[in-house]
Amino acid sequence: MEGGAVAAQSSRHEVTDAVVRFAGDSGDGMQLTGTQFTQATAMAGNDLATFPDFPAEIRAPAGTTYGVSAFQIHFGSKVIRTSGDEIDVLVAMNPAALKTNIDDLRRGGLVILDTGAFTARNLSKAGYETSPLEDKSLEGYRILEIDMSRMTVEAVKDHGLGNKDALRCKNMWALGLIDWLYARDRTINENWLRQKFEKFPEVAEANIAALNAGHAFGETADFPTEFGAAYVAPARIEPGTYRALTGAEGAAMGLVAGAKLAGLPMLFAGYPITPASALLHTLAPLKDFGVTTFQAEDEIAAICAAIGGSYAGALGVTSSSGPGIALKTEALGLAIATELPLVVVNSQRGGPSTGLPTKTEQSDLYQAVYGRNADSPLAVIACHSPGDAYYAAIEACRIAVRYMTPVIFLTDGYIGNASEPWRIPDFEEHTPFPVRFRTDPEGYKVYERNLETLARAWVKPGTPGLLHRIGGIEKDHLTGNISYDPENHQRMTDARRAKILGIAKDIPAQEVDHGQNGGEIAVVGWGSTYGPISRAVSGMRANGHDVSHIHIRHIWPLPENLGELLRSYKTVIVPEMNTGQLVTVLRSEYLVDCKPVNKVNGKPFRIVEIEDAIQAHL
Fold it and tell me: Would you list the DSSP string of 248-278?
């Protein structure tokens, strides 16, 4: 096999799956290292899921716990739905990385340490009073101490780099070692480095030298048996053309596909905010697909520009995270009053206020369903994985243009940054939902409604004979003229509500993801809890327990059969990364005594946490 991949697997112990985390200072290139290991792992045929973990500070002091960046990958020969509960291998590039990540390593797991970074100064900055390499605090783990810093400098010395630049190649040395540990083909990483640094070949070759040196160390070192290399067989996955996909990329592609299926150009207007900015970055180069992107001066300007795009006959889209969505709220009410299509993407993060901007949470469900002044109903959809973001975004576009309404599309920081192998769909298999603008002026009334959808007609400004008025002040239910009539306001409020509730007739009935209709326990989730719930329920069912999994995409309006379905179970458990927001909605709508399972520490649920919650109700 090429690139030092292991030719004979018989000398390796086979495992079905593994979890590896690279951790170091935010300047150590951990995200790049993890991404490159992910590419090599995908090419090896394993299924996988990743979880990048960023520091909140733009540039925290080097060597401090505040500046630690990490990248976790879970890969295996079976279907992978989460980034993994416990780490099997932790690569810690400095003491701070060790301190902030060691608690996630399973007992008996492998720690690979760069001893060259464990200086007295770095230990002090990380908050260690004594070195963990000497005080027995790492007992119970397998420890592999390597002076990566020295070995990297030695490996690249012939490439003309100074000591500081040479140490920047350390992440590639670590990657080479892990490539060897799991029999990855490092030519994939070499080719990427040559392409990345095409204009700086000396930098490319230095990094390749470090990569090869790390791999050679693994090949030649006389490791104890417990540090032996592993083999993970390829997974059995559905045939097709695959690519690595992040949630931000999935949402972007879904929005472009949705606009195309509607026959519309798209205007995306946004303002930078973590973790939503990646959507703007992904859409900006897609001008050839009818996408216009606009970085506004603030959140309010962004949504107003998107509304203007919809008014002019494009599909208006805007994006933010919770704090930015709050700023957009008044203009969101304008879109509801004018009854224009609009897609609002909310990449949820920890809060309130600035909160935990780089950590994940599901705390914006109340904001999405209820969070506006007056009675201001709209549709809410949530995706559950990077790949599902593509299909959920298409659905958000469909509902927005069919019902002339804003739609809030909920994703979160975990989904947005995580990646998974995604089978590229055949676009021709999607069902188009082309928009037909009204052009006939005869008998035109602005708020006259389609009898099936209760949506008003969409008219482009400047269409001959169809001069009309819309706006934020209440309008007459037919003419669109300003109206302060009490009965008219009642009628318009009821009509807007009925239009949104009517969407429930146009969405699929809620299905059971795993298990059967009715029984002892249903675990109900939404959004990024899909993976751990799915794995937990599968495991419990394999052990003979009557447990089922229901995952909700259409948060508002809810599917028509959901209440009856929930009442068919004796116990309903709802895990959420908030303090019980979906629980409130389900209790209110169906009077079902849902049992909340809540987590708000900025980290995704672990499978074992869901299993423990199920076990408590068996």
Answer: HHHHHHHHHHHHHHHT--EEEEE---TTTHH
CA-CA distance, 166 to 172, in Å (whole number)?
A: 11
Q: Which H helix or E strand runs over 607?
A: helix 607-615
Task: To the nearest 10°, report the CA torsion of 246, 343, 361, 609.
Answer: -70
For residues 190 and 204, what is the distance between their CA atoms, to the nearest angstrom? 8
Query: Do the beta carbons of residue 275 and residue 413 sit within 8 Å?
Result: yes
H/E stretch holding 109 reads: strand 105-114
Which tokens go with 61?
Answer: 């002091």
Q: Is the pLDDT of residue 383 over 90?
A: yes
Tell me what percent of the chain is helix, strand and coil, each rounded to the nearest 5: 40, 20, 40
Q: Which of 164, 174, 281 is nearest to 218 (CA)?
A: 174
What residues have CB less than 8 Å from 214, skipping those under 6 apart? 148, 151, 172, 173, 174, 175, 176, 177, 178, 179, 180
φ, ψ dihedrals at 434, nearest 5°: -65, 140
**What pairing do the DSSP bridges indicate for beta strands 342-348 and 315-320?**
parallel
Do residues 70 and 22 lie in contact, with contact meaning Cβ atoms separated by under 8 Å? Answer: yes
pLDDT at 495: 98
Per-position DSSP letters for 501-534, written without gaps between them? HGGGGGSPPP--SBS-SSEEEEEEEEGGGHHHHH
Query: What angle, 0 to 180 degrees and rounded to 10, lies between the N-to-C axes of helices 247-262 and 386-403?
Result: 30
| Distance from chain centroid for Cα 14 | 30
Q: In what order do the strands lie in the sheet with 547-552?
A: 547-552, 519-526, 569-576, 595-598
Please write the tens of the pLDDT for every residue from 255-310: 999 999 999 999 999 999 999 999 999 999 999 999 999 999 999 999 999 999 99
Nearest CA to 540 out of 511, 554, 519, 559 is that of: 519
CA distance 541 to 548: 8
Q: Which of 63, 37, 68, 66 is nearest to 50 (CA)?
A: 37
Query: DSSP letters of 419-459?
Result: EEEEEPP-GGGSPP---------TT--TT-B-TTT-PBPP-
The β-bridge relationship of strands 379-382 and 406-412 is: parallel
